[in-house]
């Protein structure tokens, strides 16, 4: 394809055709056809985009925040398969809401308090989504007391059916609470609060619809906390549904931060380009990409859960990253003397291959998240991939057509000419020195030392949560304060790790099983982080002692099957499966930190290896802590695969475009350094790798490679025109380099505001993305020319030597 070289001094080295279109002949022919049709039917293109925007915009308005406990579970993990086999028995251990009703004026043994507790229990009972048959409160019939008398064992409900609030009945309730053995679980240790335990159903059995966690959390707030909390009564609520509810409420904050980001982007783009036409066109196309993304998600039947709600911003950010190149290239072509239409077509040609490859790399980075077998991450990957797909359409095809009408303002052209003046190139001349051998070697050695130090720090990076409570929220948030209330006033931790003991049918209470389970509980209670344990055999021992005059010497397991069967009949049915082939052993943990779960899992697996067999099999795991342990395991096992796929596929795409392994190394190595540095920062700041933070790694590679592809693509232009490496890089910095710098700073400013969010995981994401946007930009501008200089030294010499080296590099 013919190349044209303008005579304008400010753009004397600029061609209107990407050399990669010549190197990739088939792609060049495709580009020619697309360009001819796109700019030959501009009104048709705009009409089609307008109709699609109306359709997808309407669907975007229908999109609602969604969340699901099942999406957070790695469904094919062995732990989860074991849990699902006994789901109906173990459901109350997993998706559970705990509501504490605290009195600040005395204890719970007053008619007023007990009446209040009854009204709140009834209120919770009728909230859609509550598993009513497993709801527990002092007022429910499944919470009973047991007593040994001369006539044998007696039992009854803690609050009797004839309760009338009289002093006699109040005293009876106080005695029953002590006899129920529920102090520390349903009644606080200081007797100033009582709890309501409400397991949730993922699917409403009447309507068949999935539980709307946002609506459920709002009902808890309006029907319980707002309605009953007064100066003398405090309500504390914890559970997965409340975390999701608080995150969904935080979406409105995220929308505000998004608006700030758009405003900052507009300011920086206009400051850089001095062109309202280009600025507004960019913001319009990037905003339209977000609308299209949301609309496509609704068409696909997907929602926007709290963990992927930041993805639309990333779509906007990626769009801005690429659109800045359009603004810059358009201005350069106009300054070179071309008409608005010619400049728009030249911009399309110059950015067709690098823009497409860069966006495909973004899509690859996100799509590799699909290897992680957790639905919420997989849906996030789909969400982000859809976002990149619509950016390809809006940025690659719509923006050039809009710019062919809008053009660049005279002020924008004058601003571009000012940037090209020699007296404005001091910083660029300094950066161009990194193409010289000594500077290049110093830069690479510094990066190597930084990489080594970061690698040592990153070894402390943990998988999972590193803080108690809900790390997604601030430690001083209301939810985490409620968690602290439960931890300080109740002996049974909300972090439950359940181990399933499988036996032959009818044998779960037999002596051989009892012996092994008793040993297991003793060993687990000596593991740091395990505060207590519970199983079928605790109440069975008390029942055996009760049938023997209350003599505590009988509170033990027994070989006598008749005695054990008699004791077994008097224990709660939720401590074993209906056919007595499984009993859960509950381990109450001090927290669900990554190191605590790792220690507990290792101890349980060691015991299982030693004792599985002879009719007893220990299976992991259920309970909220057990499911989180499975999630951490899946993330740990999949992270390496995901990173290998990201780097491998992106490297292949870069290799395909530039046909040189040396160039591929020069572009990919800075990305690897950035990833390791990011992991070191996460380790130092106490941020674990989990569902909320894992996408940062994939995003960092995708955004970073954009910078490298655009810089080397432009550098290749000048090298092919006969310039030495230093001269070619200086010209690259004047054009694409300045656009990359503005992009990095713009994106960093946008996400930096997230650090003020009330949602901690958004603040963490903002901090990490700010670092990655800036460091990837620095790495691309400094490391790529330095590595090219060292890997392809012939490019530093005379034009003839440079052409020979370039030909050698192209040959591989």
UniProtKB/TrEMBL annotation:
One of its GO terms (cellular component) is plasma membrane. It is found in: Cell membrane. Its main location: membrane. It is a multi-pass membrane protein. The keyword Signal does not apply. Pfam families: MMPL (PF03176). InterPro entries: MMPL_dom (IPR004869), Mycobact_MmpL (IPR050545), SSD (IPR000731). Coiled coil: none annotated. Keywords: Cell membrane, Membrane, Transmembrane, Transmembrane helix. Residues 280-405 form the SSD domain. The chain crosses the membrane at residues 43-61, 250-272, 279-297, 309-327, 348-372, 384-408, 439-456, 640-658, 665-687, 693-712, 733-756, 768-792. This is RND family transporter. It comes from Azospirillum cavernae. The lineage of its organism: Bacteria, Pseudomonadati, Pseudomonadota, Alphaproteobacteria, Rhodospirillales.
